[in-house]
Write a structure and sequence with these properties.
By secondary structure, the protein is α/β, with parallel strands linked by helices. Helix content is 39%, strand content 18%. Helix 3 runs parallel beside helix 5 and helix 8 crosses helix 9.
């Protein structure tokens, strides 16, 4: 049995995530007390047929977080099953706006800001242990589902996952990134009229960027660094590494860098490729994640 623990900030999209996993064939339970995980796993093993994949939401609604974070860690370490932790992150101002729009009360406080601050402190133990962190600040529900489909395809829970992500600085740096590289040292294809409507995945843009010899040097050095660091991360028990490449709009230089690094590292590691901002037009961010 494989167990996925879904957690994160209230309003960051846990409900949508659980719906995705339910549609993907997971046996799903919302708001499961941490102390009941052992019994839940036993029931899954005894089911006929046994449950092969399960996803449970554990968050700040559980009172144990208010008293003893170490108790949560001990409970997780005793689980007789392979498990992974998915943490859903979001910027404070967006969480506050979502609560104001829905007129919902934060589970930890009548004041939303105080509740968000308290929740970050409580869930820090899960964020530190998370195998995957997704920032839903600018994601619509369908975009979150697509991201989950990319990260949790069959077999993805077993191996070290190396994810390359492109993004635009105008929409913020991804919260979940472990490493961030600024690609704005390269000439910007945006100012070439023929290249502006294209993306970094198109050959014309790629050829334009490769004209600068600094780009090839950057790719060589980044690849060498990752090949050196990843075995050390694995030895320390880290199961994921998200390397993000940013440019102004997240459409040309960052996309090209992510594409090229993914191409180079495939075959050595389980590589995933995510382009955060290429499918969202500027200003088209009115529809946000719900709970």
């Amino acid at each position: 049995m494989k167990l996925l623990i879904v957690t994160g900030l209230s309003g960051a999209g846990k409900t949508q995530a659980l719906r995705y996993f339910e549609d993907a064939g997971y046996f799903c339970v919302d708001n499961l007390p941490c102390e009941m995980l052992g019994g839940f796993i036993e029931l899954c093993h005894k089911a006929a047929p046994p449950v092969e994949r399960a996803a449970v939401v554990i968050d700040s609604r559980e009172q144990v977080f208010r008293s003893d974070a170490e108790k949560v860690l001990r409970t997780l370490d005793r689980l007789p099953v392979q498990y992974r932790i998915l943490f859903l992150e979001c910027r404070d101002e967006v969480l506050e706006r979502r609560y104001n729009e829905t007129r919902r009360r934060h589970p930890l406080s009548r004041d939303v800001r105080d509740g968000i601050r308290a929740e970050r402190d409580m869930l820090g133990v899960f964020r530190d242990r998370a195998d995957t962190i997704i920032d839903t600040t600018n994601l619509k529900p369908l975009e979150l589902a697509a991201r989950l489909g990319t990260l949790f395809s069959d077999g993805s829970m077993d191996a070290f996952r190396l994810t390359f992500e492109s993004f635009g600085y105008k929409r913020g740096v991804p919260f979940e990134a472990d490493m961030v590289f600024d690609m704005r040292f390269l000439p910007n294809p945006f100012y070439e009229p023929a290249l502006r409507p294209l993306s970094g995945a198109d050959a014309a843009v790629r050829d334009y960027i490769f004209q600068d010899p600094a780009f090839t040097q950057f790719l060589d050095q980044t690849q060498s660094m990752l090949q050196m660091l990843i075995p050390g991360f694995c030895n320390q028990g880290k199961r994921r590494l998200l390397v993000a490449f940013g440019c102004t709009g997240g459409r040309h230089r960052s996309v090209c860098a992510a594409e090229q690094m993914a191409k180079r590292m495939r075959g050595e590691f389980d590589v995933k490729l995510v382009h955060r901002d290429t499918t969202v037009e500027a200003g088209d961010i009115s529809e946000r994640m719900g709970s």
